[in-house]
Specification:
This protein is an alpha+beta fold and 181 residues long. The chain contains three helices and ten strands; from the N terminus they run ααββββββββββα. Helix 2 runs antiparallel to helix 3.
């Protein structure tokens, strides 16, 4: 109880360090969240039937589909990743799809490939058909999985906001209680 009473008595002075900590956390985690996509990107490819991609390390990679808002160009497409040794990977659908949307482009995670080794791979896109106008605005993006990093960044942003808002509210409440006494 003495600790809580001390916090209550010194709430006015505790507000400033908590506000600074909250703003620092907000700044840090917003910057982290905004750079996650670029840091985890392996390659951005045009939407064509067959193309080469260099994957720098073994492990899971996620295929993201990027295109204009409300596009149906990716409907009924299939994707296969072929290794330089002839192995074929169909990939598995992403169970909890991530989506990133801007004012003109949408990016959505589609499938996960388990790449056995680093090296050159060939991506084969089935069901593409003839080239259509606007295909230059559609891209296939390979990234390392970063869902856990995204969750951590969001939790950091929430914690920073709680600290900053709580410090501001505490400061003005303690200030108004002191002015009325």
């Amino acid at each position: 109880m003495p600790v809580l009473m001390s916090i209550y008595r010194n709430g006015l002075w505790l507000s400033w360090p908590l506000l600074a900590l909250g703003i620092f956390l907000l700044w840090t985690f917003i910057a982290t969240a905004s750079k996650l996509g670029e840091r985890n990107r392996i390659g951005r490819l045009p939407l064509v039937a067959e193309q080469r991609l260099a994957i720098p390390e073994a492990g899971k990679v996620v295929l993201w589909l990027e295109g204009p808002q409300l596009t149906s160009r990716f409907k009924d497409l299939t994707f296969e990743l072929h290794g330089s040794d002839g192995t074929m990977m169909k990939g598995s659908p992403v169970l909890m799809r991530n989506r990133s949307a801007g004012t003109s482009l949408v990016r959505i995670s589609d499938r996960t490939f388990d790449v056995p080794h680093a090296g050159d791979y060939t991506l084969v896109t089935g069901g593409l058909g003839e080239a259509r106008p606007g295909d230059e605005n559609h891209h296939l993006i390979f990234m390392r999985p970063h869902q856990l990093q995204t969750v951590k960044a969001v939790l950091g942003i929430v914690l920073g906001a709680i600290l900053a808002i709580g410090a501001i509210v505490n400061f003005f409440l303690r200030l108004s209680m002191g002015a009325g006494a």
